[in-house]
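# nightly structure sweep
# worker-07 picked up a monomer target from the shared queue
# config: single-sequence mode, recycle default, output format = C-alpha cells
# input follows
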Amino acid sequence: MTADDEARWLIRGVTIAGAGQEPGVADILLGGGSVVAVESGLNHSGVRVLDAGGLVALPGLVDLHTHLREPGREDAETVETGTAAAALGGYTAVHAMANTEPVADTAGVVEQVWRLGRAAGHCDVQPVGAVTVGLGGTRLAELGTMADSVARVRLFSDDGRCVADPLLMRRALEYVKAFDGVIAQHAQDPRLTEGAQLNEGEMSARLGLAGWPAVAEEAIIARDCLLAAHVGSALHICHVSTAGSVEIIRWAKSKGWPVTAEVTPHHLLLTDELAAGYDPVFKVNPPLRTAADVAELRRALGDGTIDCVATDHAPHPVEAKETEWPEAAFGMTGLETALRVVQQAMVDTGLLDWAGVADRMSVRPARIGRLTGHGVPLAAGAPANLTLYDPAAPAEAVLAAGASKSRNTPFAGLELPGRVVATFLRGTPTVLDGKLR
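# output follows
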C-alpha cells in the first residue's frame, strides 16, 4: 500500500444526510484530502475500509462560539485540549472567541491562536477578533489588520461583554462591511444585569438570587437589528435564550435584514429549575431560562429563525466552579456533547431531520463565519471534512471527565443518545471508533 493509498478511505453503506441532498445509503471514497466519489457499490483496491452501516454522514460540524482560553488561561483550557474535545464531538472547525489574556484584539494575537490550531491538528481553528480594545467597550480594536492577517478574521465579538454603546456598535458594523465581516453581539444590557445571577422569575425569587431579566437581552437585540438594517451590515446574535428574543429576530428576518442568530445546546435542553440545588455547574451567561423559552428556542431552530447551534464551550478550572453560587464563574463546557443534545432535543422530537442538523450545525455556521472548506455538501470534489454518527447507539450517561481540560459540564450523569464514531479532517481521521487518533 502506497503513502497515497494510506490516506484513502472507503466508507461503505453510510446514510448521506447533507443539507440540500436527497438522503440515501451510499459509499464515500476519500483521497487526497477530498471526496473522490459518492456512489452505491463502490469498489476500490488498496484503500482502508470503514463499514458504516447504520451510521449517518454529516459534513464536519462547525462551531461559531468556542472559548479555547489560550493564550493566558491555560489552567482552564488550551487549543490542544479544546480542539481534541471538538473533534470527539464531531467538529472539524471551531471559531475561537477573543476573551483570552491578552485579548485577541490585534493581528499578532489572532495569528498566534490560528497557528496553535494548525499545530494541534485536531480541527481547524478560526480566531474571532475583539470588537473593542481589551473588550473595554470604548474604542474599536484593529479590525482591519486582523482581517488582513494570515488568520483572515471575519467574525468579531466582545463575547462575555456587550458592546453597549450604540454609536460604537454602529461604527463597528460600518467598518466590517468593507470586507464582508460580521459583528457577533453578546446581547446583555449591563445596567439591567448588574449583579444578576439567574433568570429573573419564580426560581430566582425562591433562591434569593439576583434576577436576570429577559428584557436585558431583548432590548439589545432590538437595538442592534435596527442598526444592522440602517447600516446594511451583517449582525450575528450570540446565544439567544428567550422567547422574546426569538420574536424580535423573526421580525427582523421578515424585513430581509442581515441578521443571523445562534442557540446553545444547553438552552435547548435545560431550564432554570436545575438551579434549585444551588449547584454552580448550572450558572451560565445568559442564564438558563424557563421551559416555555426552551420550547420556543427549539421551534425557532427547527423553522430556521435561529440559524445554528453554537456550543459557547466555556471551560473553567475546578476552583472557579466548585464554590458558592454568587462567587462561581459563568459557563459550561459543551463541545463533546452538542450533537447528542441536538439529537435528543431536535431529532428525536421530530423538529429536525438529519439534513436539518447538517444545515444548522455545519452549513449555516460555516457561511456565517465566512469559513471556506467547511459546511460543504458531501459530493465528489468537496473537501473531505465529515462526521460519522450513530444515532441508534444506546443512551449513555455523560462523564464529567473528557478531552477538555475542564469538567464543568451540566450534562454529567445525564443519559444522552447517539455517538460520534469518526471525524475526518481533510480525509484524515482525527477520531475513529469514538476515540481520538
